[in-house]
Automatic annotation (TrEMBL):
<feature type="transmembrane region" description="Helical">
    <location>
        <begin position="257"/>
        <end position="280"/>
    </location>
</feature>
<keyword id="KW-1133">Transmembrane helix</keyword>
<feature type="transmembrane region" description="Helical">
    <location>
        <begin position="198"/>
        <end position="222"/>
    </location>
</feature>
<dbReference type="Pfam" id="PF00892">
    <property type="entry name" value="EamA"/>
</dbReference>
<keyword id="KW-0812">Transmembrane</keyword>
<feature type="transmembrane region" description="Helical">
    <location>
        <begin position="234"/>
        <end position="251"/>
    </location>
</feature>
<feature type="transmembrane region" description="Helical">
    <location>
        <begin position="120"/>
        <end position="137"/>
    </location>
</feature>
<feature type="transmembrane region" description="Helical">
    <location>
        <begin position="35"/>
        <end position="57"/>
    </location>
</feature>
<dbReference type="InterPro" id="IPR000620">
    <property type="entry name" value="EamA_dom"/>
</dbReference>
<feature type="transmembrane region" description="Helical">
    <location>
        <begin position="97"/>
        <end position="113"/>
    </location>
</feature>
<protein>
    <submittedName>
        <fullName>Membrane protein</fullName>
    </submittedName>
</protein>
<feature type="transmembrane region" description="Helical">
    <location>
        <begin position="69"/>
        <end position="91"/>
    </location>
</feature>
<feature type="domain" description="EamA">
    <location>
        <begin position="7"/>
        <end position="136"/>
    </location>
</feature>
<keyword id="KW-0472">Membrane</keyword>
<dbReference type="InterPro" id="IPR037185">
    <property type="entry name" value="EmrE-like"/>
</dbReference>
<feature type="transmembrane region" description="Helical">
    <location>
        <begin position="173"/>
        <end position="192"/>
    </location>
</feature>
<feature type="domain" description="EamA">
    <location>
        <begin position="144"/>
        <end position="268"/>
    </location>
</feature>
Length: 288
């Protein structure tokens, strides 16, 4: 394996440690925390943390403010749902459901961007959604699970929307607008709940969670600059393993057998089928 690919895989795996630690940080919030108040604090501190990077980039501006506003506000609603899910469900369950986002990106790309699906992608998507149903278990359906699933859908939509932005736009501007433009909506939701639940512990968790998110994004940038996405994207799924491990280590949480099966249907086809397809193509080439 090429050296750059090995380094890229290592960086991406390390980044996913921080991604899982972000989920863990939500678990450190005080009981009965106000999700809207926490999100408001997190976004304000994120803007403060991003300001130096934005200034360093030369204070760039965007010509796509409507798209940024759409991403920011839908992302804020999704973030609220994810926080609510993390406060109510085990880390492993949330991680398994949230990793359905790549499947949703495939389907939404077909529906909204007229992208063509391969037979492999169709099979992966169908098996993944079967896995989602197994984890959610309609007979035991709860709002927290649906909230996480809705959050994954918002995340998928926002990832697709990124394709409409020029690659030349500064990443610091994109991240800052993502937090800034949704502040009125998040502040309104927090106001409707009376701005209750503020504590110094909550502020500390907000700053810590932002640090984890920024670390994850930094390692992702470094990783994808080292190697092509197709060579290292498999490492993204390590985040689910870290979430399961941290849930067991710190919160005594674990998936039951059926949930393991559902998680496998979500993750494994995305990893195995492309490799099988590549191996068959190489064999066909060798025989021709």
């Amino acid at each position: 394996m090429q050296r750059n690919i090995v380094i890229g895989l290592g960086l991406l795996i390390l980044g996913n440690v921080f991604s899982a630690l972000y989920d863990v940080s939500i678990k450190w919030l005080p009981q009965e925390s106000n999700a809207a108040m926490f999100l408001l604090l997190r976004q304000v501190t994120a803007i403060v943390m991003m300001l130096p990077l934005w200034c360093y980039a030369g204070r760039p501006r965007s010509q796509f403010m409507k798209l940024h506003a759409l991403r920011a506000n839908s992302g804020a609603v999704g973030a609220l749902c994810l926080i609510a899910g993390l406060l109510a469900l085990p880390l492993a369950t949330v991680g398994s459901l949230f990793y359905s986002a790549p499947l949703m990106i495939i389907v939404m790309g077909m529906l909204f961007l007229n992208e063509q699906l391969t037979r492999t992608q169709v099979v992966v998507a169908v098996l993944g959604f079967i896995g989602i149903v197994i984890i959610l278990r309609p007979s035991e359906l709860n709002l927290a699970g649906l909230a996480v699933l809705f959050s994954a859908m918002m995340f998928a939509g926002n990832q697709l929307a990124l394709r409409k932005l020029p690659s030349t736009e500064a990443a610091s501007l994109t991240v800052m607008l993502y937090n800034l433009l949704s502040l009125p909506l998040v502040a309104l939701i927090a106001a409707l709940t009376g701005f209750t639940g503020f504590s110094w512990q909550m502020l500390g968790v907000a700053i810590l969670s932002n640090g984890f998110l920024l670390a994850y994004q930094l390692f992702c940038v470094l990783a994808y600059r080292r190697a092509q996405a197709g060579d290292i994207a498999v490492a993204e799924y390590s985040g689910l393993l870290f979430a399961i491990f941290f849930g067991w280590l710190w919160f005594d949480e674990w998936l039951d057998g059926l949930s393991w099966f559902g998680a496998a249907l979500i993750v494994l086809p995305s990893l195995i089928f492309p490799q099988i397809k590549l191996a068959l193509a190489k064999r066909k080439l060798a025989l021709s």
